Every structure is written in C-alpha cells, then in structure tokens.
What does this fold into?
Amino acid sequence: MSFFEAQQISISFGGLMALNGVSFEVNKGEVFSIIGPNGAGKTTIFNCINRYYDLDEGSFIFKDKDISKVRPHVVADLGISRTFQNIELFKNTTAIDNLLLGRHRHRRSNLFTEALFSPFVQRQEIDSREKAEEVIDFLDLQAYRDQMVAGLPFGVQKTVELGRALAMEPELLLLDEPSSGMNMEEIEDLAFWITDIKEELGITILMVEHNMRLVKEISDRVLALNFGVVLTQGDPKGVLGHPEVMQAYLGDEGVSITG
Amino acid sequence: MRFIMKRDYYQDIRLFKYRSTFFWYLALVIGCFLAPTVLDDYFISQLTFICMYSVATVGLMLLTGYTGQVSMGHAAFFGIGAFTSAILSSKGVPFVLALPAAGLLAGVVGIFIGLPALRLSGLYLAIATMGFGFIVEEILVRWESLTHGNMGMMVDPPSIGPLLFESETSYYYLTLVILTLTILAARNILRSPTGRAMIAIRDSEVAAQAMGISMAKYKTTAFAISAFFTGVAGSLYAHKLTFINPESFTIFVSIEFLAMIIVGGLGSIHGAVFGAAFIIFLPQLIIMTKDYMPKYLADQTGLDPVLYGLMIILFILFEPLGIYGRWRKTRFYFEMFPLYKKDTFRREKKYFKAERH
It folds into this structure.
C-alpha cells in the first residue's frame, strides 16, 4: 500500500468541474509536486485533503485509512500538516506562539489541569517550547521569536508558517506554493530546507509550486494538472518537457507572440 | 528597556516575566487588601461591584476578546448564576456549594449556547446570543414557582463556616479573593494549549483546524468557561444585593458587559478589569464633574446618559485598544524615555489580505 493516495477524486463548484477523477500516489519519504496553470485545481486538492471542501467522488487514503470523511481537525491529528498559499498565520500573536500552536496535537493536558497550571502542564509546556526552539533553530527564526507576526516581512511570515507546520511533527507535509512572494535568496534557503525536511526529518512532502526551477531541483516526482484533469505524472524532467504541459502553460504551438 | 538572561524554559512560562512585575502585582494585592482601612463604606461597596463585575468581564473577555465570539447574552448567564445561587441558598445549601453550582449550571447552559456558534459568527452570533438572553429573561419571569417571577427573591448574605460576609468590608474581601482566583485561572488557561487554541480560532479558523484544533470542542469550551465565570459573578451579585429580580438581567446588562471589555481593551485581562472599573466609576465621575459645570448645563435632564454614551464613543474613536492600550503606551513612554516615538503603536496599513486559503 502506498503512503498517501488520492483515488479518483472529483469536486465541482456549481457547473465548474474543479477536479475530475484525479488519482495519484505519494510514496513515503519523497517530495511530490503538483504543477499546473492558474485555476487548474491544485490548491483545491489541498483544501479537499484538509476537509475544507467535501469531495463529490473518490477518496484520500492515508496510511491505509480513508480520511475523506473525517472532521477537519482530525486530518491534522493523524499527522498531516500544511501551509497556505496566502498566509494564514495567527496574526495577533508572536512567532513562538504560532509555533506552539503547531504543538497542539501533542497536548495531553485538559482544561482543569491547565486552569491550575499543574506541574504536568508546566512540563508539557516546557517540552513544547523545546520542540518549538528546535524548529526555530532549523529555520533560523531566532530574531523573530517574540515578535508579533503581523509586523514581520512577508518572506519571514512564510517561514514562520512553515515552522508552524513542522512544529506539528507531521508525517506528511502539504506545502501550498511555498516560494510565492519570496525573493531569490529566500527561495534558495527554502530549497535547502525542503531537502533537509525530507532527508533529515524524514517527512514526506506534497507540494504545489509555480517556480519550475524549484520544482525541478527538489521534486522526486511531479504531477501536472490542467482544468482539474491530470495531464501527466512522473519524474520532473519528463513532466516539465511533456508537450501537453508546455501547451497548458504556453498555449498552442501555432500561436506566435510577435503577432 | 529590560533584558533578561534566559537560562531555562521555565522562564518562558512563568506568570511574571520580570521580578519587578511580581513586586508590583504584590503591591497591588496588598493595596487592595488595605483599601478598607482608608476608604469609607461607600467606596468599598463600589470596589466590590468592580471586583464582581470584573469576574464576569474576565469571562466575557475570554470569549469575545480571546476567542473572537461576540456574545450579547451574557446577562443571561449572570442571571442564571444569580438565581441558581439564590434558590439553592433559600433551600439551605451553603454558599461554598451554591457559588460553584451557580457557575457550573451557567457553564452547562453555555455549552448549549456554544453550539450555534459553530455555524454562526460575528453579528449573526451576536443576534443569536441576544435571542438566548431574551429567552432566559422570559423564563426567569415566568417560572414563578422557582424564581418568584417579577416579585423577585430575597437572598441572605453568604457565610462560609463561621465567617459571615455581611459587612461591606468582609464582602469586599470575598469578591477580591474570587476575582484573584478568576484572573489566575484565566491566565493559566491562556498560557496553556486551550488558551492558545482559543486565540487561534479568533485569528484564523481555517489555520486553527489545520493545527488539529476542533472548532466544536474549543468554541463550546470557550462558551462554557466564559459562562462559568459570569455565573459565579451572578452569584456574588445576588448575595451582595440580597434582592434580585429578572429585571436586573436584561439586554442592557449584556451590552454593558460588552462596553466594559471594549473600553477596557479587547484581548487583555487587564482590559477586562480596567473596563469594569471605568464603566462603574463613570457615573460617579460625571456627578463629580457636574460641580464644575455651569449651572444651566449641570441641571439639564438626561445629561448623565448622554455624557456616559459620549465617553464611550470618544474612547472607541481615539483609543481603539482601550484603556489597556493607553496604559501600555504610557508605560512604554516612561520605559523608553526620552526616546519614545509616537509611531511605535501606529497601526500598519495592510495591503495584503488573504481572501482564500
């Protein structure tokens, strides 16, 4: 059995078929990228995995368990974390608090012990902070630890979001356009981090990305999507060079730009 | 500016970040306990009201300021707490049991009121909770066999064992202790996973769900905690006034609670207490300023409510962060003196706003 699998997933909004019988498999320990022009349905896949949308047909299988009917927060409890295309941080809190929120699924305390702030809760808080600090070290966020995220530069906010997803210690990490809005240096850092996440932390990555250089550099396999339909999937080179993919991005061969 | 050398993680989670903060709060608590020695009964009675309302506003602050759920029905929890305590006391149940029972019953009702919050937000939730407030008010009026309806109920001053809390001073100490415990509990919850989950829901529901935070669980929890504290405050209110009737728990009380937390400063426990103090002292303040007004103005009928409303409008207009925001700015000014920059607290204009996820 594969690690994560989408089986013939379909969803439509009114008359628009956003996803039409999309299937793919993600193996443990790989970076799997989804590419496609705007409106191809890439982010919709993520939103379906996270259960923000209900699938019309098909299902997602994560470690032999069907997760297409569970409640939204259960997806995270099972070990799937994600980042968002347009930042969805907890804006009025500090960076460290955002990371600590990533630790939520590991909590063992209840309301009553928390109200008393019992030694158990204290121990748990300290453990959470240790884990959050590990992530801060990993992503070089030391300078921003106690700052409100609303005031941080865009690239840093994206990094905090990545950190928050990592603090969850997920098994599968969904990255929704991690490089959008970042500058060249930040994208370079990102490429290293993603490789490290895969190799050192052993986290499987499913990524939606527009930066083809990044996709080519770090993906193990790529899936190309257009108008909710899979064009092709396979190794990065083959997919990016595929004639249908070229056509989806650049239009028909006959069209000349000079005209 | 103060810097602390952090050597272990416990320094991050303790209640007081700096030693000096601890001493200031200690001084405050001691000051509060010594207050009856210098103030007369009238002021002590006002302080009692501030403490008691603060218990309720801390509860509402957790819900509205921290979880982002507006409630216009908190007078109902206040009323449920007051009547539960009154009825239990009249049946001979001791105060030490009646007080938590009042909170618990309000909390249980809070869970049910939290359910619509799963589907509603913002103004719609405000209206739904307002409707709930009306229903409870009506029940309190109609269920005469239990609540005596509009006739109201007499409530005895509370006693714990041999201690009888009848005098202003003793009752003040009682409410002060309960307020301190309430604030401690609220602070503890806020620095634990539950509190963070509540803040997460306020800032982004989608992201909160992606963190594994259950909307159903935490929204109802927030309502329950909030209702619990408000119910406890209701119980204190009943025993303080020694007479209650359903008219004391109308929509106006709910709005007053909201005004307290907004004027105090949303999203801070300080704000909840400051707001309660401000709104309770405001009428006194207006009466005091009347002495300095020209006579034709001071004798004007309806002056008090107009000034009352005007003060609240001015506050919201010029200090959206509330009294606590003003407090922070003032403190910052002295900490940074003479380097204070006015722009430090200016709100950044956001050109980037996430519309989808």
